Amino acid sequence: MKNRLFSGILFGVLGLLIAIGPQTVFHVCPVGDIPMKCHWTARAEIGLGVLIAISGILLLLFSKAQVRMGLSISLFFQGVLAFLVPNVLIGVCGGIHMDCHKLTQPVLTILSALIIIASAINGIYLYQIDKRRNDSNVR
Amino acid sequence: MSAKPMTITRLSLYNLRGKPFRSGSLMAVVLILAFALFGGSVLSASLKNGLSALEGRLGADIAAVPLGYENSYQGIILSGEPVKFYFDKSIEQKIKKVDGVEKVTSQFYLSTLSADCCSVPVQIIGIDPNTDFVTKPWIAEVYHNELKDGQMIIGSDILPKKDNTLTFFNQKFTIVAKLEKTATGMDNSVFVNVSTVKSLAESAKQRGLGTNAEVQEADLENSISSVLIKTKKGIDLDTVATNIRRSVDGVSLVKSKNLFESFSNNLDIINSFVGIFSLALWILAALVLTLLFSVTINNRKKEFSVLRILGATRRKLAGAVLTESLILSITGSVVGILLSAIVIFPFSTLIGEQLGLPFLLPGVDDTLGYLLIAFLLAVVAGPLSAIYSAVKISRTETYVTLREGE
Question: Is there a contact between A97 and B346 if contact means CB atoms under 8 Å apart?
Answer without folding.
Answer: no
